[in-house]
Amino acid sequence: MKILSQLRTSSFQLALLYMVVFATSVFLLLAFIYWRTAGFMTAQTDETIEAEIAGLAEQYRSGGVNGLISIIRERAARDPDGKSIYLLVTDDYLKLAGNLSNWPEQARESQSAWINFTLDESLGWRGEERLARARIFEVQGGLQLLVGRDIQELTRLKRLIEQAINWGLAITLALALLGGFMMSRSTTRRIEVINTISRRIMNGHLSLRIPTKGTDDDFDQLAENLNQMLDRIVYLMEGIRHVSDSIAHDLRTPLTRLRNQLETTLMAVDNDEAREHAGQAVAEADQLLATFNALLRIARLETRGNAADKTEVPIGELVADACELYEAVSEDKSQTFEQSIDSDVTIEGDRDLLFQMVSNLIDNAIKYTPEGGNIRVAVSPAGSEVRLEVSDSGIGIPDGEKENVFQRFYRVGKSRSLPGNGLGLSLVSAVTDIHQGRIDLADRYDDEEHPGLSVVIHLPVTVPDGRGPDRQEN
């Protein structure tokens, strides 16, 4: 699959285009070389034959037919290997002289002065079959003369050149393909690093940065620009977060005083209507204080980063304790509270934070599940991780909003009429990040009206020290 994905990359397609252009240019160059080489050798053979004919013509002019026959016999005798080919025949193709016994069929049918034919037994050739090239012309008195050369070696040489060209082209294509693949692979690796880091940053790991190689090439410049952009975004986000945290911190003290004064007033008034109004004011103040406390708690968690107070935590027992605490609340709403907890499961983490995380999940499940609904809590080992699942048959979360519910103060449209501040899952996300875990949200789908929600948290058995696996150097 990796090879297929490599072939679909733009860098490989660009390398493939370059390979095609390069291979085409190499093919044209080799074809030109072959055309010039083969043409030169053929021309050289034809010139040799023309020289032979010129010599025979001179002998014919000086000695007539007898002289021509004599010189042909003499030359044939001096060339036992048959490199030169001679055949003088009458108008009815009877042999007068030469090293062939019969007139070639190609010579009888061809209208051209030049012919290519095969030397074999039918022509009286005694050796192995060979290719030959000859020229035919008429001699005075109806005689015909064929003068040629054995071109077997020339043909072999042409074939060797053709094979060399074919192999050269094949090797060129293979090297170009290999080079293109390696070049695109190197480029794709760097792009994939950027894509991988970018996806993890989008998933909330804003501390990550794209690594550079120090070559100051295009990819390094792109990485540096992206890192500077991320630094600026984090700086602005930290500024906004600092303002909200400061507001929450500064308002908590006077709000606490106000709440205490309202509670004192509540105890002092005798009028039932005034007491009811004061009680409502105290409840509203408690809700505001809970919101501010949650904001400050999340800020402290995010400031701590991965510096959790790590100890051996029996997560199964911890979840069982949280279930026991909330089971009574669930019974008040006539909800079914199911548990499937492996009490022997242990992880390394911060007990207080983990208990707070589990409590938030169970509290949300009970809150957003109607009376008579179902709550299920499960803890089980999963290799090097622990799987914690809290599911309900409540109102659920639409698919388009699942990525937003971990933001501060974000509330799903269906839940706005219910009490809450939209900080519960933000706290869960912060605790999960500290323990280097991950969260999955899925619909439970008991029915269409109440699709329910399944929150699955995967926690590593051992939390990595230091910066953790999700952090990289620039």
From TrEMBL:
Catalytic activity from the UniProt record: ATP + protein L-histidine = ADP + protein N-phospho-L-histidine
UniProt keyword Glycoprotein, yes or no: no
SUPFAM superfamilies: ATPase domain of HSP90 chaperone/DNA topoisomerase II/histidine kinase (SSF55874), HAMP domain-like (SSF158472), Homodimeric domain of signal transducing histidine kinase (SSF47384)
Pfam families per the UniProt record, alphabetical: HAMP, HATPase_c, HisKA
Class of enzymatic activity (EC top level): transferase
Record-annotated membrane-spanning stretches: 12-35, 164-183
Record-level Gene Ontology MF annotations: phosphorelay sensor kinase activity
EC number(s) stated in the UniProt entry for this protein: 2.7.13.3
Highest taxon listed in the record's lineage: Bacteria
Residue span(s) of domain HAMP: 185-238
GO cellular component: plasma membrane
Cross-referenced InterPro entries: HAMP_dom (IPR003660), HATPase_C_sf (IPR036890), HATPase_dom (IPR003594), His_kinase_dom (IPR005467), HisK_dim/P_dom (IPR003661), HisK_dim/P_sf (IPR036097), Sig_transdc_His_kin-like_C (IPR004358), TCS_sensor_his_kinase (IPR050428)
Domain Histidine kinase: 246-463
Keywords on record: Kinase, Membrane, Phosphoprotein, Transferase, Transmembrane, Transmembrane helix, Two-component regulatory system
Subcellular location: Membrane
Name recorded for this polypeptide: histidine kinase
Native organism taxonomy: Bacteria, Pseudomonadati, Pseudomonadota, Gammaproteobacteria, Pseudomonadales
